[in-house]
Design a protein that fits this description.
binds flavin-adenine dinucleotide, Elongation Factor Tu (Ef-tu), domain 3, alpha/beta, six-stranded antiparallel β-sheet, 18 strands, Rossmann fold, globular, five-stranded parallel β-sheet, 3 domains, Ubiquitin-like (UB roll), 10 helices
Length: 366
């Protein structure tokens, strides 16, 4: 039986595994009473699973919740990746009654207002967070929902029936458009732009393979969708282990940093000297600190101060720790998720942030 090795991770029991398509399995978890609060989520968020691995101990992988929060169900949907480790392990091994360690919900691919009108783009397994948003908006919101859903062929369409049911129940609020590569070829940026041009006032969310997302985001930019109405979720595999003992990880990072400092002495001289004052808005509260040395990663500083700042991968691969810098600046050691527009909007990854100004104000409230 697995044990918890971080405060946040919980051992969850699988209550059901559903074969959605030959390549995709949904996994439903039971959330113990004392973990209900920690596992509350908003549509579009993901869980991080510790998939056992004989080679590396665990492979940590993020999976978006495909269920809608108001149903009280915590369900992820995993599609096999060719030659991928964790996705195949989950589809081949997990069954009802099994347990697995899971980190609480995280992520910022979430609508601020479920009453808005939504333009949703999904391809393949990218439907997972998107169906959670669509269902939540239709069943608890009041706006319109339009979904452009691309797949290789008919048998690879995940949630075909559930989406058809939503379409027949919400005839006046939900437009569902299936695009099959086997019939129509790959959707081009021009196709996506033409489609999106009918819904210029909607809030857009896109999730799918990299070329599809690139096409969707380019289309939205070409149509002048403002940044705050344009969201994307990138599916990448984590390289590190957010389940590991935090102090051990910090010690390891400090050792690496020490080696880097030694190798890059000139760079170290140019960093801002502490103490640096930091004002942070989190969960509606403002916290002020005046003793960040600026070299320690900002997330580690917050942890030392006992601040419950959000994070997941700790390596700049997901966006769970994203904040907006409203005054001052930070540099990031590593960034795999934020694009040029995100950076221009002041969005930064706290797990990768080091000081670049004497005072800093950030907000997690977006
Ligand atoms: C926020 C977020 C949400 C996500 N939600 C979902 C979801 O809802 N559903 C879903 O199915 N997935 C989701 N993912 C993706 C998921 O986390 C995994 O990335 C995916 O399942 C693949 O993991 P894997 O271990 O099977 O593949 P990996 O073993 O990580 O391999 C991925 C690919 O890389 C190649 N590869 C592996 N190692 C090497 C190497 N050393 N050199 C070269 N190539 C290599 C493999 O051949 C494979 O093609 C999400 C990711 C993120 C960040």
């Amino acid at each position: 039986m697995a044990t918890d090795d971080t405060e946040a991770a919980r051992v969850l029991r699988v209550v059901e595994v559903i074969e959605e398509t030959p390549e995709a399995h949904s996994v439903v978890f039971e959330i113990p009473d004392d973990a209900q609060a920690a596992f509350e989520f908003t549509p579009g968020q993901f869980l991080t699973l510790a998939v056992p691995s004989t080679e590396t101990g665990i492979a940590a992988r993020c999976y978006s919740l495909s269920s809608a929060p108001h149903t009280g169900i915590h369900q992820i949907t995993v599609k096999r990746t060719a030659d991928g480790y964790a996705s195949n392990w989950i589809c081949d091994n997990l069954s009802a009654g099994d347990t697995i360690r899971v980190l609480p919900p995280s992520g910022i691919f979430t609508p601020k207002d479920l009453n808005a009108d939504f333009l949703l783009f999904a391809a393949g397994s990218g439907i997972t967070p998107v169906i959670s948003i669509a269902r939540s908006a239709l069943e608890t919101g009041s706006g319109k929902v339009v979904l452009f859903y691309a797949n290789r062929d008919e048998k690879s369409v995940i949630f075909a029936q559930a989406l058809a049911d939503l379409a027949s129940k919400y005839t006046d609020r939900f437009v569902l458009v299936h695009w099959l590569e086997s019939v129509q070829g790959l959707p081009t940026p021009q196709h996506l732009q033409h489609f999106a041009s009918h819904f210029l006032s909607y809030t857009a969310f896109a999730c799918g393979p990299a070329p599809f997302m690139k096409g969707a985001i380019e289309a939205l930019k070409a149509l002048d969708f403002p940044r705050e109405r344009r969201h994307q979720e990138k599916f990448v595999s984590l390289g590190g282990n957010p389940f590991g003992d935090v102090e051990e990880m910090q010690a390891a990072q400090a050792t690496i940093k020490e080696a880097d400092d030694h190798d890059e002495e000139d760079d170290a001289k140019s960093t801002v000297e502490g103490p640096i004052s930091v004002e942070v808005e989190l969960d509606g509260q403002t916290h002020i600190f005046d003793d960040w040395d600026g070299k320690k990663l900002l997330l580690e500083f917050f942890e030392e101060k006992g601040l419950e700042a959000p994070y997941s991968c700790r390596e700049g691969n997901c966006s769970a720790c994203a904040c907006v810098v409203t005054e001052g600046e930070v540099t990031m050691d590593h960034n795999e998720v934020l694009d040029a527009d995100d950076l221009a909007d002041g969005i930064r990854l706290v797990c990768q942030a080091r000081a670049a100004s004497q005072t800093l104000k950030i907000s997690y409230n977006g």
